Structures are given as C-alpha cells and as structure tokens.
From TrEMBL:
Ranges for domain Metallo-beta-lactamase: 23-211
Gene Ontology molecular function terms on file: exonuclease activity; metal ion binding; RNA binding
Full protein name: Ribonuclease J
PANTHER family the record matches: RIBONUCLEASE J (PTHR43694)
InterPro entries referenced in this protein's UniProt entry, alphabetically: Metallo-B-lactamas, RibonucZ/Hydroxyglut_hydro, RMMBL, RNase_J_2, RNase_J_b_CASP
Protein species of origin: Marinomonas communis
Keywords, sorted A to Z: Exonuclease, Hydrolase, Metal-binding, Nuclease, RNA-binding, Zinc
Pfam family, one: RNase_J_b_CASP
Statement: the UniProt record of this protein carries the keyword Metal-binding: yes
SUPFAM superfamilies, A to Z: Metallo-hydrolase/oxidoreductase
Domain of life: Bacteria
Length: 451
C-alpha cells in the first residue's frame, strides 16, 4: 500500500468509506504530515465483497491505510451519533489509539458503546459544546450546528494554512425540528468570508426534487393516524431518532395512551437523551412489561427492527415471541422509517407475517401523509447550501454514484466553479492543485465480530 504523506502545501480528502455508498462513513483529511479522521461508522447485513452473496451483521471500511501510520493520526472527530458515523469506532479504536473529539450527546452514546467492549476509561474523549472552536494537530476546527434526525448534528469547518474545507456531515433544513435548535443559515453565510475552497457534502437525497419535510410535520401526520385507532399501535422506527420518540410521547399524552419502548437500543438511546437533557421531563414512559395489562386502545409501543432484522422486536412480535406484548387481529404496526436499500425483502417478509395474522401494517408509501421524513437534504436544500457557503469546489459524498452525480450537477447549476466526484480510495487534492487521483488506496471492507 502506497505511503501517502501530505506536505505543508497539501490539503487532501481521502474517503475510505461512505463515498459511493450510503453507510460506514470513514473520512480522512491530510495536511502537513498529519491526518484527521472524520467519522468511523458501520453498515448492517452487507457483504464485504461485491462478488459474495454472504452477508455480515456489521461491516466497516478497512482502516489499514491509516492504522499503518497511526502516529500521523492527529485525532478522530465524530460529527453525530448515528451508527454509520460512530458504530465502528469502539471496535477499531485499538488500531488507532487516537483522541476522540465530539459533542456531549454523541460522547454519551460513545461512552456506552466503549463500555460494552471494555474500553471505557481508555479512550481519551474531548467533549465539546455545539459551535465550539478547537484544534486537533495542525487542523483548526469549528462545529457548525445543523439539523438532522438525531441530537447535535454538526458540520465541521476545517482550516489549515493550505486551505479550508467545510464538511457538512448529515444534514437537512428543518425549521421545526421538535428537539434541538432550528436550522439557521446565518452561520453558513459567514463561512463565505472564510474562503471555503471545498464543500464536502451529503448527497443522500440529491435525486429528490424540492425540499425535505419537517420533523414537526411528521409528528402531525402520526397524530392524525394514531388518534383514530381503537386497537394497539406499534411503531417501528430508528432508535436514534430522539425527535420521533419525543413526538410519539406527546402523541401518547394527546390520545390517552401509554408509551413503552421495546428493545434495548431504544431504551439505551432514550437513557442517553435524558442524561444529555434532550428528553422532556413531561414525556413519561412506562415499563414495557406493563403493556400486557392495558386495554388495547391505551397501548402505544415503539419497537426495534424497522428494517426487518430477524432478531429485533418487530420480528419477535410477528412470531408472537415478545414477552411483553402480544398483538391481535386489527392492531396496527406502523413503520416510521425509510427502507434502507437492500432491506426490501426482509421488510416485505415481516409485513407479510403480520398480515397473515390479521395485524394491519402501514408504511410511508401506503399513505400521503408524512409518517416518516428524511434527515437528508433534497435538491433545493443543496442549492441553498452552495449559495450560502459559495465554495470553489464541490465534493459530493455520502451517497451512491448516481446521488453524487446529481449533487455535482446541482453544484454546477449553483455556479460552484469545480465539482469533483469519486469513490472510496480516491485521493481528492484540494491544495495546492485541485483534482482527483483514482484508486490511490485500496478501499476494502471488513466484517466486525461482536464479542
């Protein structure tokens, strides 16, 4: 493997995961003999080789390139607590042994993950409040507060003597996000004066026209559906979407139901939200063991397994193998989550299992109301971002090739002078010259074995 060492005149972007795919983000920035890692995530139930039919529960980018020169790794920055940005770090950290920098909620999630693998207390964690400015090695950094589907989503302004980059992380424009600060373009327009050479930008929804829907509109849609139900209602959603869980807690109060969480990841995430101050004191939860004693019209439960995961709670409910709750004919299972590409068959099997028992299901494509909303920007939001920041170069990431191509076209139409597209393992040179060197690093995947 070629040993790449950036000089003081260089500013490089090297994605090892998350560019050319959605998931398992692992990004490197290089300058003056040092590297900065931004995010270290996983994907679920995927092969490690495109020619293999065998899937693995947890898959991440092969970090060998940076592990072999870890003395040059100044630090690891985690932009937010979604699994595709943080999930691999507890398993890979021993290969890096570098300090970690993140925000308070994400730090709380990270500490819990580190405890599970016996690393709590060994990892140096720098907990930095939203909007903080900080230095990691030769990189001057600043959190840029954005909105997404989890608390404390932060873009990252990266400044070096060779040039400056704005790394968006995951984001959308949400003026009513249910929890956290509402989106404000003010800080983004100030970046214009800081000479942003490159904007490395989320491409997930670049193929979708218009503007993403607010989390508050999702709350209203869920309320409209649930208030008319007479039986039990079970909602499948991502455990990390604290805003969605808060919305469901409020809906429970408004509809005379009791809310319970079924699944350890949900309970752990809400516990972390309480510690970090994101769970309202007036949003009560009941223990899931109490659900079986309630009348059907007072039950509102949230369960893990919205992607059809065989061992998660929705599948156990479909098999009548959930100790805390049994569903009956006429009850409703509502999917308030996107279908991650590749999970279509698993979800279809799950839905069929419920329907075979007379249990009704509702997915976002079954209804015009937004019972799920995305946490990523549509085309009009990308156009706005390019107009606010006005970079010299657009580097689409966090998407499959067609998403990144669409993002590049949006940047071109927004009058960004240069657009660079590539894949994991390509070296994007931002300074002193702009370009892409293809396939400089072998971008392999590896399976993670849980203890």
């Amino acid at each position: 493997m070629e040993l790449l060492v950036p000089t003081r005149n260089d500013l490089w972007f090297l994605p090892l995961g998350g560019t050319g795919e959605i998931g398992m983000n692992l990004n490197l920035y290089g300058h003056d003999g040092q590297w900065l890692m931004v995010d270290c995530g996983v994907s679920f139930n995927e092969p490690i080789d495109e020619n293999s039919a065998r899937t693995h529960e947890l898959v991440c980018a092969d970090p060998s390139f940076i592990a072999q020169q870890r003395h040059r790794l100044a630090g690891i920055v985690i932009t937010h607590a979604h699994e595709d940005h943080i999930g691999a770090l507890p398993f890979l950290w021993r290969r890096f042994q570098a300090p970690v920098y993140t925000t308070p909620f994400t730090a709380e999630i990270l500490r819990r993950k580190l405890a599970q693998v016996g690393l709590l207390g060994e990892v140096e964690i720098h907990e930095l409040s939203m909007g903080s400015q900080f230095r990691v090695g030769c990189f001057d950094l600043q959190w840029v507060t954005l909105t997404h589907s989890i608390p404390e989503p932060s873009g990252l302004m990266i400044e070096t003597p060779a040039g400056n980059v704005f790394h968006t992380g995951d984001w959308k424009i949400d003026h009513s996000p249910v929890i956290g600060e509402r989106f404000s373009p003010a800080v983004l327009t100030t970046l214009r004066q800081r000479n942003v050479q490159a904007l490395v930008c989320d491409s997930t929804n670049a193929l979708k026209f218009g503007h993403s829907v607010s989390e508050y509109d999702c709350y209203k849609a869920l309320l409209e559906v649930i208030k008319d139900e007479s039986g039990r209602v079970v909602v499948g959603c991502f455990s990390s979407n604290i805003a969605r869980l808060v919305s469901l807690a409020n809906i429970a109060k408004e509809t005379g139901r009791y809310l319970a969480l079924i699944g350890r990841s949900l309970q752990n995430m809400v516990s972390a939200a309480r510690v970090a101050g994101y769970w309202p004191e007036d949003a009560p939860l009941i223990d899931s063991s109490h659900l079986g004693y309630l009348p059907a019209n007072e039950v509102l439960a949230v369960a893990t397994g919205s992607q059809g995961e065989p061992r998660a709670m929705l599948n156990r409910l479909a098999r009548d193998d959930c100790f805390d709750l049994t569903l009956e004919k006429g009850d409703l299972v509502l999917f308030s989550a996107m279908i991650i590409p590749g999970n279509e068959m698993a979800i279809e099997r799950l839905v069929s299992a419920f329907k075979a028992q007379g249990i009704r299901t509702l997915q976002s494509h079954d209804i015009d109301q937004p019972i799920h909303v995305s946490g990523h920007p549509y085309a009009d939001e990308l156009t706005a971002m390019y107009d606010w920041v006005r970079p010299q170069v657009a580097i689409p990431t966090h998407g499959e090739p067609e998403h990144m191509a669409a993002n590049a076209q949006i940047a071109k139409e927004a009058h960004v002078p240069r657009q660079l597209t590539g894949l994991n393992g390509d070296l994007f040179t931002i300074a002193p010259e702009v370009g892409v060197r293809k396939g400089v690093v072998s971008a392999r995947r590896m399976a993670i074995a849980r203890n």
